[in-house]
Write a structure and sequence with these properties.
Number of domains: 1
CATH class: Alpha Beta
Largest sheet: 6 strands, mixed
Low-confidence stretches: none
Helix content: 10-25%
Keywords: Cytoplasm, Nucleus, Protein transport, Transport
Mean pLDDT: 89
Subunit structure: Interacts with RAN1.
CATH architecture: Roll
InterPro entries: NTF2, NTF2-like_dom_sf, NTF2_dom, Nuclear_transport_factor_2_euk
Pfam families: NTF2
Main location: cytoplasm
Strand order of the largest sheet: 2-1-6-5-4-3
Structural class: alpha+beta
Order of helices and strands: HEEHEEEE
Number of helices: 2
Radius of gyration: 14 Å
């Protein structure tokens, strides 16, 4: 299967789940997974989901602008995503970028203009 097709399907699933039910992301992370969220390093599926579900907003909508994918030497994929994050009740969307390697390592950063 084409790596770009797999990456785009994964990204759709990940952000649809994030927007609807962040706790549902638990099965996409492993105990060895690490999330760096705005500089804070969080390791393990339960800890990552605890961080994501404790964010100070309940509703959001990700709008994906780009999905870049590269096959890795370890049989996985490196996926980098950029787009906007619209929070409920907010007039302006936030720009974000996120890159991961089969959600073993995940880095999230808001891009303030």
């Amino acid at each position: 299967m084409d790596p770009d097709t797999v990456a785009k399907a994964f990204v759709e699933h990940y952000y649809r789940t994030f927007d609807a039910n962040r706790a549902g992301l638990a099965n996409l992370y492993q105990e060895g997974s690490m999330l760096t969220f705005e500089g804070q390093k969080i390791q393990g599926s339960q800890n990552i989901v605890a961080k994501l579900t404790s964010l100070p907003f309940q509703q959001c909508q990700h709008n994906i602008t780009t999905v870049d994918c590269q096959p890795s030497g370890a049989g996985g994929m490196l996926v980098f995503v950029s787009g906007t994050l619209q929070l409920a009740g907010e007039q302006h969307a936030l720009k974000f970028s996120q890159g991961s390697f089969y959600v073993l390592n995940d880095i999230f950063r808001l891009n303030y203009a």
